[in-house]
Amino acid sequence: MRARVIGEADVLRLVDLLRQDRQVIAPFCGRGRDSYFDVVTDVNRDRIRLHVPNPLYPPKRYVLPHIERLMRMRRSAAGLWNFQPDYAETPLALFGVRSCDVAGVRHLDRFYLGREYVDAYYERRRRNLFVVNMVCTDPEVDIDDNCFCVCADTGPAARDAFDLQLMDLGGGEYLAVAGTAAGEDLFSAPFFRPATAAHVERRRAILTEVRGRFRSTTSWFAATVRYISRGDVLDKTWEEIGNRCLECGACTFVCPACTCFTVSDRRTGKEEYERVRMWDSCALKGFTRMAGGFNPRRAVHDRRNRRFFRKLAHYFIQRELSMACVGCGRCAAVCHGDVGMPSVVEMIRRATAIAAPPLDESSTVPSAKVTA
Ligand code: SF4
Ligand code: SF4
Predict the structure, then answer these.
(1) Residues lining ligand 1, Cβ inside 6 A
(2) Could you report the per-residue pLDDT of 15-51, keeping only the tens digit for each?
(3) E strand or H helix at 38
(4) 255 lines ligand 2 (CB under 6 A)
(5) How far is the CA of 335 from the centre of ligand 2 (A)?
(6) Helix, strand or coil for residue 17?
(7) Is the Cα torsion angle 302, 305, 310, 314 positive or negative in sign?
(8) Contacts of 211 (CB under 8 A, 6+ apart)
(9) pTM above 0.90, yes or no
(10) What is the dihedral of CA 304, 310, 312, 317, to 10 degrees?
């Protein structure tokens, strides 16, 4: 482990160091429980929060913007079209990203970069991104009842996809762990001190203690993944889930692991257009509507069914090497119908297990023959 120690008072100097050659995005607190990510400026720099309630809007938008222009299209007087791609190359640092959101970026990486087609727009943003993970250690502030990173195996400390990881050891000290060469380069700054075996041991003890603070450390994911993958979930269970969905789309828009988008062209001048990409949501009726007007998933339960199949079915887990859920709990926090991920996993497990036929003799494994 390439680790150093940094004093709490010097963490802002680390932010200043990052700001020398890139824009830095960090978490802030608003009114009450409200928290958000924003660009760090000279004005707000002192208000950066190291421990912060989970911002409902994840930092995903800095690597996959809610709306982004992909290209400009112009027609010349001679009638020829000119296509000008619009790539974002601004170096960016995401500072203070919790581990579930780091796993969310990792999931986006596998979707947009990990297969036969590489998304050139995402790839440029990602190449210019520096990620500073903050381990959630304060149970009063960082962790709430909706968090289940321990069940999703993404936290409380990220294991990869960060450049630098900070963890509050208490007593005004933070342990900094480098995840990449770029992260390790920062250790040449004078405010980093060598870490000792005692610091690493303190990290281990804190993580053990924090894991025990989660309300539930038992996951029903395994059973639900199996039921969804085998098509065992009853139609009436999907209908019950669908009946509780108000089709607002909030669960998808706050999800750090949702990847869906739509593309649209819009006129910007007489002979000028721009092509934009924007997040889309499987919760919305138009998501699967085809050009001729036919919609194979008109019923809301068909679309909810699709959301959880996409997130939990074995086919996708095998393809992307993870569930498309990182355990951030945001969908549980925003859903008016209480059909966020934890509730749905529990509803499916309970309903499917109860409906399963009891074991009979023919379904048991025959016992081995004992010979003298
Ligand atoms: S947040 Fe809840 S009500 Fe809104 S679309 Fe998602 S599941 Fe439906
Ligand atoms: S499905 Fe819900 S809990 Fe899972 S990553 Fe998305 S918003 Fe977070």
Answers:
(1) 245-251, 283, 334-337, 339
(2) 999 999 999 999 999 888 899 999 999 999 999 999 9
(3) strand 35-39
(4) yes
(5) 11
(6) helix
(7) negative
(8) 150, 156, 217
(9) yes
(10) 180
